[in-house]
Fold:
Amino acid sequence: MTTKRVEVPQGWEAFAWKWMRYSGVLIFILAWIHVLIQDILVGVYQIDTSYVATRWSGGFWRVYDFLLLFFAFSHGMNGVRQVLADYIHSAGGRRALNWILLILWAIVVVVGTIAIFAFTPPAG
Amino acid sequence: MSFKTASEGYVKYQGLGNWAFVLHRLTGLGVILFLIIHVLDTAAVYFKPDLYVDAVSLYRSPVFGLGEILLVLSIIYHGLNGLRVIYFDMINPDMWTIEINRKSVIWTWIITLVLWLPAAVVMGSHILEHLGG
Structure:
């Protein structure tokens, strides 16, 4: 059996398809390190406001968390879009779906980004 | 290939590759649902610190602890299966045969379990240590 090669038209959907793969490699590294540290080595019982204050006292983990937020959330929301598009067959329905998910994506990314960079440790 | 063809194709082909695909979608949807909640509850540490304290204490309950163990399973599987798909798609498309696909799916599940079990033991022992307080 041979693999059939086809020409795919270049456009937004082709870009989105490639985006899932390139961002996937990056998230594989960022998310696994995040899970290893926060869920397994540290654990939720040692995570509190002062832990966050220590973690975000420098720039490195803030930038790290921002990159993870941006890439993982964009990858995930595009994944939701691709899954739902398999069940929504009308052009208008897909357009509405794209807008709803884009707005939700923007809200969560903006809220998360503000928190990451604006956070200052509580006094005392 | 239209999306309709694709979705009908998914139903007709029921091999291991199809189950890998279905699990990839289910674990992905599970992780993004958690991620929406997780970004917002972590953002509370800046916007509403009291709420952040409540959220963390909720995550410390045994039920959420078990959910966290399943979340880690989802992330390990989704990541490994994703790398498998990326390798096939971007580097070596000739590997998209039913037989190679089937074998690589089995290996993906084996590696997933090998990585997940020690993580589940560590996380499970954390839950047991904190039972009842």
Q: What stands out?
A: The radius of gyration of chain B is 19 Å. The mean pLDDT of chain B is 90. Chain B touches chain A through 49 residues (CB under 8 Å).
